[in-house]
């Protein structure tokens, strides 16, 4: 998924806050437009970014 790749690229380049913002925006769009939650892989990456130092 595009969001997952973007989040990973931002996180790996040291832009943790931007990666978390992408998740926030993606989740808002997906829930509003489709009535769904982001996929498991995106949620797991979000959690990994949150707990990383």
Annotate the secondary structure layout.
Elements (H helix, E strand, L loop, with lengths): L1 H11 L3 H19 L5 H12 L2
Helix pairs in contact: 1-2, 1-3, 2-3
What would you note in describing this structure?
The protein is mainly α. It has one domain. It contains three helices and no strands. The longest helix has 19 residues, at about 15-35. The chain starts with a helix and ends with a helix.
Structural class, by secondary structure, is mainly alpha
Number of β-strand runs: 0
Sheet of most strands: none
Strand content: under 5%
Helix content: over 70%
Question: Low-confidence segments, ≥5 residues, pLDDT <50?
Answer: none
Total domains? 1
Radius of gyration: 11 Å
- N-to-C CA distance: 24 Å
- Shape from CA axes? elongated
Number of H- or I-type helical stretches: 3
Mean pLDDT: 95
Primary descriptors:
53 residues; mainly alpha; 0% strand
In short:
The chain is mainly α and 53 residues long.
């Amino acid at each position: 998924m595009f969001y997952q790749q973007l989040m990973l690229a931002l996180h790996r380049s040291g832009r943790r806050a931007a990666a978390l913002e992408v998740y926030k925006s993606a989740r808002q769009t997906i829930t509003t437009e489709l009535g769904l939650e982001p996929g498991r892989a995106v949620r797991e990456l979000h959690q990994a970014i949150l707990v990383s130092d």
